[in-house]
Every structure is written in structure tokens, then in C-alpha cells.
């Protein structure tokens, strides 16, 4: 029996990697759809609301055929509210950055979230962060600085600030999800975030909602569905393989964003963006390697734009 165990583990790891790769493609399709929607007149609040509204049916179907609706029961409603508040703030900022920056720039800056997650984990969870991880943090910040490219090709600096705020929000989600994951089923975490997100943005829709042309509605619908499917696939990947195995494949989203940016918007990433992305990815992968070597499972299990 023992010879089959490594084979079974390899099979599960491969399944997790495939699911994670499909999730990354789904998130890239989501952000591309929502960026097109923003160009068609959709505001940030509308993007958050319709992303939740059109994504909720997907989440409900997944719960019914998978872990079951009973998994949404929670004994920690306050913790879900805190996680959702941080997550909604992060999503608002991420979508705001998406409407101001090119797709590759917005996604790449979003991948600075693990840098801030390291800092927040040290401050809030008292995680021990050694010189290796602090070095990775410094390299990641250098990568962000290169994307801002002072003195180089113009970039919307307000968009950069908003994107960094979104990355900090994503890092905050990582910390709170780690705390929730000890007692709450992942189905409850996903479900209650969608409920809170739809409720809060629904109130905003009373004042900021508008009618749109059919093309914009289509992009909003696709954005919601792609995002929810990607969220489910990401969750399934974590059930199949450890986060240290699948999370490095998240960085393929930068590649997909660059391809979509070129195909849809004719945006070709500049040398500064490529160099900055290399440093950010290198920082993240080095952190992943360190966590795996130390037999820890502390890598963010959250995409840069969820």
C-alpha cells in the first residue's frame, strides 16, 4: 500500500495545480470584464454589487452540490463582519485602481499583498519574521517602486496609491481568513462575504446605481460569474493540495493580464513594469519556498483582486 501513497499525493497536487490555474484564468477574465464595464460607465459600487449579485447563484450551487448549505452556519458572526468589512474595502480599492490603471499594472501591484500580509502577520499575529522574509519584503517594495517608474513613462499615481491600498486590504483579508479558518468552513467564509458585499453595495446602489447599455450589462454579468467560478475553483484547489503547492501559480495572473491587456487594449508592458513584476514575483516565490521549507502554511490564499 505504501508505494501508492506518493502517487496519490502527486495526483492530488496535480489536480490542485490545475484547479488553481483555472481559477487564476477566471480571475483574469473577471477583472478584464469589469474593466470593460468601467469603460462603459459602470462605477465601482456597481461593479462590487453586480459581482456579488451575479456571483451568488454560482456560490449557492457549489454549496448545494458540494459541502452543503449547512456549512454556512457560523458561531463567529462578528469575525465574518470584520473580514467582510476589510474585504469590501479592499475590493472597492482594487476595482477603483482597475478603472484608472492598465490591466497589467493593476494586477501586478495587487500582488504586493503578500508583502503587506507578512507585515500585518508580524504586527497582529505575532508571527516570527526573520531576515529572509524581511529581505523578500524589501525586494517586493522595490518592485512596486519600479512599476511606479518615477521619471519614466507616465502613470496615474492616484491609481497606484489606490492599488496599494487595495493590496493592503487583501493582506488584511489574508490575516482574518487565517484566523477564521481554524473554526469556520470555507463555504461559510465565501458565502457570508458575498452576502455582506451585496448588502453594503446594495445600499450604495440606491444613490449610485445607473442604467447602462447592453454591452456594459454583459460585462457586469460575466464579471460576476467569472469571479464566483474562480473563487470556487480556488477553494477546491486548496482542498486538493496544500497552499504552498498551489499559491505560486497565482502569479500566472500577471501573464494573463498582460495578454488580455495587449489583445483588448493594445497595452504592451514596458521594461519598468516587467522588471518590477519580476521582483514582486521573485519576492513572493521566495517567501513561498521559505514557508514550505519551514513546514508552515502561512502563504496568502487570496487572489490579488478577489
Quick structural overview:
The chain is mostly helical and 306 residues long.
Describe this structure in words.
With 306 residues, the protein is mostly helical. It is 77% helix and 0% strand. Helix 3 crosses helix 8. The model has no long low-confidence stretch (mean pLDDT 86).
Structural descriptors:
306 residues; mainly alpha
Topology:
Blueprint: H1 4-39, H2 44-65, H3 77-100, H4 103-110, H5 113-124, H6 131-148, H7 157-180, H8 186-208, H9 214-240, H10 243-246, H11 252-265, H12 271-293
Helix pairs in contact: 1-9, 1-11, 2-3, 2-8, 2-9, 3-4, 3-7, 3-8, 4-11, 4-12, 5-6, 5-7, 6-12
The tally of strands reads: 0
Q: Which structural category do the helix and sheet elements fall into?
A: mainly alpha
Helix content range of the residues, please?
over 70%
The averaged pLDDT comes out at 86
Choose one word for the global shape.
Answer: globular
Radius of gyration, in angstroms, nearest whole number? 19 Å
Terminal residue distance: 41 Å
The major sheet is characterized as: none
Q: Strand-residue fraction?
A: under 5%
Number of helices: 12
Order of helices and strands: HHHHHHHHHHHH
Low-confidence stretches: none
So what's the oligomer here?
A: single chain
Amino acid at each position: 500500500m505504501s508505494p501508492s501513497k506518493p502517487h496519490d499525493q502527486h495526483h492530488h497536487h496535480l489536480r490542485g495545480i490545475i484547479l488553481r490555474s483555472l481559477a487564476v484564468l477566471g480571475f483574469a477574465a473577471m477583472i478584464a470584464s469589469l474593466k470593460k464595464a468601467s469603460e462603459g460607465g459602470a462605477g465601482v459600487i456597481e461593479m462590487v454589487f453586480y459581482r456579488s449579485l451575479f456571483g451568488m447563484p454560482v456560490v449557492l450551487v457549489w454549496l448545494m452540490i458540494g459541502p452543503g448549505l449547512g456549512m454556512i452556519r457560523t458561531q463567529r458572526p462578528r469575525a465574518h463582519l470584520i473580514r467582510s468589512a476589510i474585504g469590501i474595502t479592499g475590493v472597492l480599492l482594487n476595482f477603483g485602481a482597475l478603472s484608472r490603471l492598465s490591466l497589467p499594472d493593476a494586477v501586478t501591484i495587487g500582488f504586493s499583498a503578500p508583502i503587506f500580509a507578512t507585515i500585518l502577520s508580524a504586527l497582529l499575529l505575532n508571527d516570527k519574521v526573520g531576515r529572509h522574509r524581511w529581505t523578500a519584503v524589501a525586494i517586493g517594495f522595490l518592485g512596486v517602486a519600479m512599476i511606479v517608474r518615477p521619471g519614466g513613462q507616465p502613470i496615474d499615481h492616484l491609481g497606484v496609491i489606490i492599488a496599494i491600498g487595495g493590496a493592503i486590504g487583501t493582506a488584511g483579508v489574508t490575516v482574518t481568513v487565517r484566523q477564521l479558518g481554524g473554526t469556520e468552513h470555507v463555504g461559510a467564509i465565501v458565502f457570508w462575504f458575498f452576502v455582506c458585499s451585496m448588502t453594503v453595495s446594495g445600499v450604495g446602489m440606491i444613490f449610485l446605481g445607473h442604467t447602462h447599455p447592453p454591452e456594459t450589462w454583459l460585462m457586469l454579468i460575466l464579471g460576476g460569474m467569472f469571479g464566483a467560478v474562480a473563487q470556487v475553483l480556488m477553494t477546491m484547489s486548496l482542498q486538493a493540495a496544500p497552499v504552498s503547492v498551489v499559491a505560486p501559480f497565482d502569479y500566472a495572473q500577471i501573464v494573463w493580464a498582460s495578454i488580455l491587456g495587449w489583445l483588448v487594449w493594445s497595452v504592451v508592458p514596458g521594461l519598468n513594469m516587467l522588471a518590477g513584476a519580476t521582483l514582486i514575483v521573485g519576492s513572493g516565490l521566495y517567501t513561498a519556498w521559505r514557508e514550505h521549507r519551514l513546514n508552515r502554511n502561512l502563504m496568502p490564499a487570496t487572489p490579488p483582486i478577489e
